[in-house]
Design goal:
With about 300 residues, this protein is an alpha+beta fold. The chain has two domains: about 120 residues, Roll (Chitinase A, domain 3); about 130 residues, Chitinase A, domain 3, CATH 3.10.50. It has five helices and 14 strands. Strands 1, 2, 3, 4, 5, 6 and 7 form a seven-stranded antiparallel beta sheet that branches. A hairpin with a 4-residue loop joins β3 and β4. The protein is elongated. The termini are far apart. About 0% of the residues have low confidence.
Length: about 300
């Protein structure tokens, strides 16, 4: 009985100690938040900034407005010029304004760039000043010369976004295209001639194809030639991803049009060492026909 009572007492002591440690962590986090808020308010007052506080905790002021500008959406490619500074005005990061090389990123829903905490409150063509508390700025792990638990200022002087998805949708609407299916990856699959038999995994397909831009300009084709393109049914590599996604949905004898963004094609930034003529950020169209299915 004494041993059991001792175990209970020891367990209770551990719980009390653990609770005290957790309370201390919570109190320290609360203190950092309070200190950040005080520093930010003092800075805003000293600089006479007319800011508002966003729901995520960012303070911001639009210094050049463009009420009709487009807002960023998922799937956009974004370019911006920026300067990030400590609240003592020491610059810790910036884009290359002098070389006119804006920072660029793709808003794919997975990108964790700091700018996704700010750009939802801007429109294209606007300029803005943002003040971010340390938990949103990434702290000293994100920037050199930034002490722990320090708020930062970010000035954005140029912001432009581009949506390939919007261009594709506009193309489909303008040309009154009846999309058979839009895949989860974003491939628009348009069946133009029914097939006669299902594809068999591992078999080799013989294809006729024409690749072109939304403008209608053809960049590649094997139509009118004796050779055909070979693709293994079920393949996930060897060709651009959007092309394979579409082909693997087809049937023998079928004709289809595949439309997809550059992220499923040759990439948003084309590697010029590959000698390709495909421009950056260009949606692609492939007209495809499966003419044969054979063993390897």
């Amino acid at each position: 009985m004494k041993i059991r009572l001792l175990q209970v007492l020891l367990f209770g002591t551990v719980l009390v100690s653990l609770s005290a440690c957790l309370s201390k962590v919570v109190l320290e986090d609360d203190l950092i938040v309070q200190q950040n808020e005080a520093k930010i308010q003092q800075y805003i007052s000293a600089k006479k900034l007319n800011t508002q506080k966003a729901p995520n905790g960012v303070y911001y002021a639009i210094t050049k407005a463009n009420p009709t500008g487009r807002q960023m959406v998922l799937g956009d490619t974004v370019r911006l010029h920026y300067v990030i500074s400590r609240l003592d005005d020491f610059k810790i990061d910036s884009s290359s304004v002098l070389k006119n090389q804006p920072f660029k990123f793709f808003n794919d829903g997975r990108n964790t760039t700091i700018f996704l905490k700010m750009l939802p409150y801007m429109r294209e063509g606007e300029q803005a000043t943002f003040i971010l508390p340390s938990d949103l700025a990434g702290d000293s792990q994100a920037f050199p010369n930034l002490p722990a638990n320090s708020p930062v200022r970010c000035d954005i002087s140029f912001y432009k976004s581009y949506s390939e998805e919007a261009d594709i949708d506009a193309y489909v609407t303008k040309n009154k295209i009846n999309v058979t299916e839009k895949t989860t990856e974003g491939v628009r699959y348009i069946r133009t001639k029914d097939g006669v038999a299902d594809l068999i995994a591992g078999k080799v397909l013989k294809l006729k194809y024409t690749g072109k831009y939304l403008s209608g300009k053809v960049f590649d084709t094997n139509e009118g030639k004796t050779d055909s393109l070979t693709v293994t049914v079920g393949a996930t590599s060897g060709f651009v991803r959007g092309f394979l996604i579409g082909v693997n949905k087809m049937r023998l004898g079928e004709k289809a049009t595949l439309i997809f963004a550059s992220r499923l094609g040759y990439g948003q930034v084309v590697d010029r060492r590959s000698n390709t003529t495909i421009p950056d950020e260009t949606p692609l169209i492939f007209d495809v026909e499966i003419v044969a299915q054979k063993d390897k």
